[in-house]
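Much of the work behind modern protein science is quiet bookkeeping, done one molecule at a time. The protein below has been through that process, and both of its lines are reproduced in full.
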Amino acid sequence: MSITEPQYKLKGITTEHPSITTLAGNLNLVKHPSGGYFAETDRPTETSSTFTTLLDDNVDRNASSLIHFMMTCEAPRGQMHTNVLSRTIHILQRGRGKYVLIHPDNRIETFIVGFNAEKGERTQWVVEPGVYKGCVLLPLTEGAEESNQDILWVSEVVVPGFDFQDMKFLDKGKLSEKVGEEKAVEMEFLL
C-alpha cells in the first residue's frame, strides 16, 4: 500500500467544517501544538515505579491513560513517533485514515482505519512499545474527494499511562536508516 501525503492544503481545504469544531468543543478537546485536537479523559491514580524512562531513571507511572485524538483538514497527518515503554490500544470513533507503522525489525506495515470491514478497514488496533507510528487523514468514503468534513477521531488507551519522557520522534536520518533512502523520501512528510 503506497504512502501518499494528504493534499488538503494544496487544494485549499484548510478550514474544517463547523460541525467538526462543534464536536471538538462538545468533547472538550483542545488544539494540539502538532496539529489536530486532543484531550486526556482518564488517568487512574494508581502508580507503579517499575518503569524506566529514556534517561534510565525510575519513575512513577500511572497504570494507564485514555485520550481522544482528532485529525481534520487543518492538520491531516500524525507525526511519526514511538512510545518506548507504552503499549497503545486504539479505538476508532469516527472517520477514516491510514496508519503507517515501522516495526523494530524495520518492517513497514500500513492499513486503513475505518468502518468498512468488508474492505478490511480496522476499527481497533494495537501498537506495541518501540514501534513507530504515523497516520494520515483520508476522505470519509473510499474514492471520495478530500473535503473539510473529513475527520479521524480515535480514542487511545496507553499502558502504562502516557508520559512525555516515553515519547520519541523519528528524524530524517533515522527514517532513512530504518526504511532505506527511497522509501524515506516517500515517507518524509510524516516527520
User: Anything to note?
Assistant: The chain has a mean pLDDT of 92. Helices lie at 18-26, 172-179, 181-187. Residues 18-26 form the longest helix (9 residues). The first strand starts at residue 30 and ends at 31.
